[in-house]
Design a protein that fits this description.
Largest sheet: 5 strands, antiparallel
Number of strands: 5
Structural class: alpha+beta
Strand order of the largest sheet: 1-2-3-5-4
Number of helices: 3
Strand content: 15-25%
Distance between the termini: 34 Å
Bound molecules: adenosine monophosphate, zinc ion
Radius of gyration: 17 Å
Helix content: 25-40%
Length: 133
């Protein structure tokens, strides 16, 4: 556990939260300020600040868990779709620096905004990025 990390405290049961699911590695809770009905957060119990710090084994389990909980939320709440959102770093909108995945059920008439303005992939950018791999 990291000191003064609210999601460490929630994930490990020190601070109560509306828990949808728990196992030895994860706790899944309802977001306190939901973007839409059923907005949930997957929290690993072991602290990792972000995706870059997350152990491979936890990362693999997190997506399987996201699939399972997403299906239950979508079916149970009769959602029309669902976004999985995961922010890393302040520039990307991360506000709590303990890895988490947002599961946001979507409804035809909701007010959720997960959008960006489409840009253009230039030849120079494409080459620069392809050269990294
Ligand atoms: P992010 O911007 O990706 O770091 O998301 C942080 C999320 O955590 C936001 O959607 C907050 O509403 C949510 N949040 C912060 N504190 C709590 C809390 N104590 N219980 C439940 N959700 C929380
Ligand atoms: Zn933490």
């Amino acid at each position: 556990m990291a000191e003064n990390c609210i999601f460490c405290k929630i994930a490990n049961g020190e601070i109560p939260a509306a828990t949808l699911y728990e196992d030895e590695d994860f706790r899944v809770i309802l977001d306190l300020n939901p973007a839409a009905l059923g907005h949930a957060l997957i929290l690993p119990k072991a602290h990792a600040a972000n995706l870059f710090e997350l152990p491979d084994e936890t990362a693999a389990k997190a997506l399987v868990l996201a699939k399972k909980i997403s299906g239950k939320l979508k079916d149970g709440l009769h959602a029309d779709g669902l976004n999985v959102v995961q922010n890393n770093g302040e520039a990307a909108g991360q506000t709590v620096f303990h890895f988490h995945m947002h599961l946001i059920p979507r409804y035809a008439d909701d007010t959720v905004d997960v959008k960006w303005k489409p840009g253009t992939l230039t030849d120079a950018d494409r080459e620069k990025i392809l050269n990294l791999f």
